[in-house]
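just leaving the lab so this will be short. below you get a single protein, a line of residues and a line of whole numbers that encode the local backbone shape. id like you to explain what the token line says about the fold, in plain words if possible. thanks a lot i owe you, the record is right below:

…
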Amino acid sequence: MGKMSSEKNPLSEGEMEALTALCDTLLPAVDFPDDHRQPLDQSVLQFYQTSASMAKTPRHVGVLLYGKIKHPKMFMAKIAIWLLSTRLGTLILCGRKTLSTKFPFLLRFSQLSFEKRQQIMLSWSNSHFFLSNLFFTSIKIFTLFTFFTQVNDRNENPSWKAMGYCGPDPIRSPNKRSTQKQQENDGSNKEDHPFGPLHKGIINFHKTSKQMAFQKLQMSGFHVSIPCSSDIGIGPFKPSFIVNCDAVVVGSGSGGGLMAGLLAKAGHKVVVLEKGDYFARSNLSLIEGEAMDRMYLEHGMLATQNMNAFILAGSTVGGGSTINWSASIRTPRHVTKEWHEKHGLELFGSKEYEEALDIVCDRMGVQTGFEHEGFNNMVLRKGCENLGYPVEDIPRNASPDHYCGWCGLGCKDGAKKGTAETWLVDMAESGNGAVLPRCEAIQVITHDTVHGRKRAVGVVFEFQGPEGKEIGIVHAKVIVAACGAICTPELLKRSGLRNPNIGRNLHLHPVVVAWGHFPETAKPWPETAKRSYEGGIMTAMSSVAANWDKSGYGAIIQTPSVHPGLYSILTPWHSAKDFRARMLNFSRIAHVFALARDTSSGTVTSEHDINYTLNDLDIDNLSQGVEKALRILAAAGADEIGTYNKNGKTIKVNESSRSRDEFESFVKEESSRPITGLSTPIGSAHQMGSCRMGVGPDRSAVGPTGETWEVEGLFVTDTSVFPTALGVNPMVTVQAIAYCIGQSVLEVLAKK
């Protein structure tokens, strides 16, 4: 079933047996429920009868656990798997259920019956001992996500048909129709290159020889030199080549991409270093597992130290703007007021900032309205209207006819105007810039100045050459760090900056999801053709719990993009049969979430060292948001509603026996359930504040112009500069801030 990884299996035979037993406990081959009276669909039967090991899932999970995922707690999972491969270790982790009346009287985990293994894993799930709970959560996430996202050579997964999932977007599959639609969305026929409008600005050191890459750089007007001696270097770094330019931008997302386009169009030579890879339109598969693996930070499995919050962050050319959900919301007035008045930042009370918002929205083609609304947003809108809750259209950087639920996996037709379709294209077409994908910045090079403050003069970066890892250096007059709120602090610290605010004040916009089932009945709503994963991901939102007119801190209500892999790890696992039944409902499950503008803050040292704990105020705001979300789902006509709390209950909303009191009791109980401690999945798609802007170095990492307090000529232009959490989707805000900082950078370059 699965495309097997070419990586060597890192597990011993005993460890592989233990891991296989774990995976097959979560996903065994089971009999179809006896109460099924209708003719049995063959795809459903196959779904029930395919185990994790039959799909070769354990091998993939082993590669994740023992190779790809670098989370600091993974070593505990490895120790647990090793213990389960032994008799004594199984006794330690599983207790008396491992005892046998026959010699040698102790059984390894793989030798236990399925019933006992299932009881043991449920006990781990509900354990008050954090490490047991953590181990269960890790194995559940990796096993289920892998099983429901892996594909065969035809890019198919046998489970999908039973779940009502079509796989990659059939309308945007690579064919003539897709090419024609792409040209229509571009507004002309000039874009007929198979690699998209940015292709001429991309230089791939990992796909071409250095000589050809050098030639392309030189043709664009960059000066490239090769050190005469291996002794020439910067500290411990011995570069294989050096590029000279006016500005180097680290990161190509909303902040970095805009800065690159702005500077290049002004006539300055710009090099963009991007840690992630470049995926042209024609190379996007729109397969959930592949996209998460190749286009997201930490392969889409990024999490806080305690694994209480799972973080989605783009790591590809275009950054988050390539894989976000199109929401293009201007900075709310109460936020600019707070940043101006409470944080002393005049920028946010200025006419220049308002003009910047207009400029970036115009460049991205931001507009409201849609020709057809998708399943989730129809539910959100109808529920709000029936309850009298406020509901509004979400502006998007896509056309009204862009009916696509796969935007989180990249935009196949270029209709979503992220930076790889806008600002970076401006840079490429100016002839003054180049994007170097899969080139990771290691350190900003600084020199001492006569007045005591350091000055940024370049960036050391690492890339994969034909003979292994190599080092390159870009010398520049100005350095712009735009790696995102997770990665920028690490780069600054590696570069010698010591401001204590670097890596602090991290905000995550924590998200908790509620669901409602809308079965295909005789008179279904939404109509039978609608599927939860199709349509514009975000076209409606409610501020009913946002508290904008009072404290400014609360929760907005929106809808997510949920494909089978994400759905599987959200869904509680109570038993093998119960879990399979829940998965069959996938395509008619509407999801509505509460997103809190968090007052909680954490710290980030690196992508593998993120600490974040929710405070009571944010927990209360999320609970109020979940309560509204449950009511919205019920008011929209859901047959059944619930949350993803592992101990949560569900309620059949439309059963005649349900009294109003019973419904109210259910909503109150479910919205008050614990959120922390791995009890409820918490997600984050927005990370902010870890190098926040301010008026002095005692409380901020950068000044009002975006320049770091410690290093002259080193600017930051990503969401890490936000003084507080924003409370809404940040793409427009970060671009507007970057545009304003860009004016300061242009002034510096003009002087130099």
